[in-house]
Every structure is written in structure tokens, then in C-alpha cells.
Amino acid sequence: MSAGGAGGGSLADLPGGSAPWPRQLVLLGHPVAQSLSPRMHGAALRAAGIDAPYEALDVPPATLADALARLGAARAGGNVTIPHKRTVWERCDVRTATAAAVGAVNTFWHASDGALVGDNTDVDGIAAAARALTRERPVRRVTLIGAGGSAAAAAFAIGTWGGATVALWNRSVPPAQALAQRFACVRVAKDLPSALEGTQLVIHATPVGMRDDEVPFDVAALPPGSAVLDLVYRIGATALVRSARAAGHEAADGTGVLVEQGAAAFRRWFGTEPDRAAMWRAVTSGAP
Ligand code: NAP
User: Fold this and answer.
1) Whole-structure pTM over 0.90, yes or no?
2) Helix (H) and strand (E) counts for the chain?
3) Cys staple from 249: which of 37, 43, 218, 244, with CB 3.0 to 4.6 Å?
């Protein structure tokens, strides 16, 4: 089956979906200085004429509980990034079915009764970016590199594609085994070359290449015609994407995932589609 959508559903179907719009939006992470989310959501909010600030909050783990209490009092909404996706999942009063299955929260809001609601829109972002990259071609064999929160979101998305299987490789074996136990479509490969054998789509879900030109694997090992989706994003594309393209493969970095997970979060908060073109411009222009 093709790389279809996942984690959809109308706002009315979501817990807290009838909540008032958040008047304050934040990104919770540590560190957050490099994140493009404030710039991207700032552009979406301006384009929609919504007068709510979106700011990055650098929250060390020891102060996360206090930060969530303050955000609860303000009925704020927002996004969550490394290292808080699992802890926020644990602290949510309500989780969407997608967040419950993935085990990590990247988007939250407060219901009208004050309940903290958590969702995972990385699933929507990865599914949409994979669909765009493969141009809806059938994908039956996927290689997943990494076994953290975004790998779980990818595994959940792939599980909805109908018959697609995942060969998973991670530098540490126990997290890979734990992921395979949670998602029926996933099996742990014995090494990286066997994970790449016969693959049609590689999804890279580790931070390798975020800050330098390190690549997680040699693209010479890619089968002809296979595509590469790197969840890492960098202005000018990651070294993995550049080398995969140079070797004749279709490849995309995580910019599309960033925009699509952000668009899905915007829909959860405001019940309306954001201006994706404005979001793309904001994350690719380099302008403040
Ligand atoms: P995570 O939960 O912390 O998981 C990180 C994974 O990467 C683990 O499997 C870890 O392996 C592996 N890893 C870490 N450092 C490594 C290294 N030096 N070499 C090889 N493997 C390494 O993180 P995550 O939330 O899944 O995020 C992973 C990446 O995806 C990050 O770079 C993040 O920015 C990116 N991401 C992008 C988007 C987007 O919108 N584009 C969305 C989500 C995530 P161990 O189990 O051995 O520790």
C-alpha cells in the first residue's frame, strides 16, 4: 500500500477538541535555541490573523513540572521536543489514541475543564513527508534507523499503510527490541546492511547529522530506486540527503516533517488549516 495518512480525524473527535483556542503557545525543550518552530508557527499565526505568541521555553528536566503547572494556569498549548516528549506523555491527563500508541507527546493543549491533553503529530508529519517523497508509490519494505520517540511515530504511521514491513536498526539493541514488541510491522535487523537489503524507503530517526556532516550510513548500500527520508533538518539539507541525491536517490530532509507536524498541531489548537506556504518560507528563508 502507499504511504497513507495516519493520526487524522476531525477536531471534534479529539479529547478537548471543543476547548477554547490557546492564547499562549510554547515549545518545551532543552535546549531549544536551534528550533525553527517559533519562526514557523509565528508565520502561521500571523497569516491566520491569530494574536497569540509562540515562544521557545528552555526547560531543564528538573523544572518541567513547574513549567507545566504555569502553562496549565494559563490554559496554554504548544509543542514538546527533546528531552520532554515522554515525560509530558506521562503527565498528560488525557492522551489521543495516537499519542497513547506512540508513547510520546509532541503537541498539547488544555481542555475546557483544564485537563492537559497530549497528542503526537510527528505521526502526521512523517506520513505526509513519506507520501510526498514516494509520490504515493506502493511501499512495502521500509528501513527504520533509530528506536526513540520519532522512530515510534514512524512505526505507528507505517503500521497503517497496510502490509508494509519495517526492518529496524538501532545502535543499542534493547530499545530496538522494545519497539519491535510494540509494533507488529517491525522486526529488528541483525545489522545495518541487512536492514537496508531490499528496502524501498529508509527513514532516518537519530540525531546524526544535526550539527555536522556525519552520515548514519554509506549511501552506496542503498538498493537502486530506494528513497531516503531524513528526519533531521538543516538549511541546505543534511549530508545524508545530499549524498543520497548525488547517488541518484530521491531524498528529503526533515523540513517537510517539521512543517506537516506543525500544520497538524495548528489544526489541533485552532481547528483550521494553517498557511503551509508561509510556514515553508519561514523555515527555509533563513530570515528571522
Ligand atoms: P530520541 O527519542 O532521543 O531517540 C534518539 C535515537 O537516536 C535513539 O534510537 C538513539 O539510540 C539514537 N541515537 C542518538 N545518538 C546517536 C548517535 N550518535 N549515533 C547513532 N544513534 C544515535 O529522539 P527522537 O525524538 O526520536 O528524535 C530523533 C531525531 O529526529 C532528532 O534529530 C530530531 O531532531 C529528529 N526529529 C525531527 C522531526 C522533524 O520535525 N523534522 C520530528 C521529530 C524528530 P540509543 O537508543 O542507542 O540511545
Assistant:
1) yes
2) 11, 12
3) 244
